[in-house]
Amino acid sequence: MNSFEQLLEFISRLRDSRIPFDLKCVRDAIMVALRSPSKYYEIEFFADGRIEVQTFGPPRPVQTVTLREITDRVVRDVNG
Q1: pLDDT digits over 30-48, tens only?
Q2: Pick from 34, 50, 70, 77: most CB atoms within 10 A?
Q3: Beta 29-35 vs 63-65: how paired, if at all?
Q4: CA distance 37 to 30
Q5: 52 near 41, Cβ under 8 Å?
Q6: Helix%, strand%, coil% for the chain, nearest 5
Q7: Range of the domain at 56
Q8: Based on the structure, what is the number of domains in the chain?
Q9: Residues 78, 38: contact at Cβ < 8 Å?
Q10: What's the predicted TM-score (pTM) here?
Q11: Is residue 36 within 8 Å of residue 77, measured between CB atoms?
Q12: CB-based contact 71:10 (threshold 8 Å)
């Protein structure tokens, strides 16, 4: 799956779960920004297939993750 397909899959999953989000163009990536009850997420999809996530809330460093990892984490966090 290429990076654009990963982005579309993630957006589709957010829509299916009725999770609101914003899209932004940052650095060399498309960023999906969203809020959960306890965190603010910035998930960046890069052309090379890399996905990075940064959360604001409890301190955490920027992480590189897979599409499945971030999708499952966001849906679980937002929906409880």
Answers
A1: 999 999 888 899 999 999 9
A2: 70
A3: unpaired
A4: 23
A5: no
A6: 35, 35, 30
A7: 3-79
A8: 1
A9: no
A10: 0.76
A11: yes
A12: yes
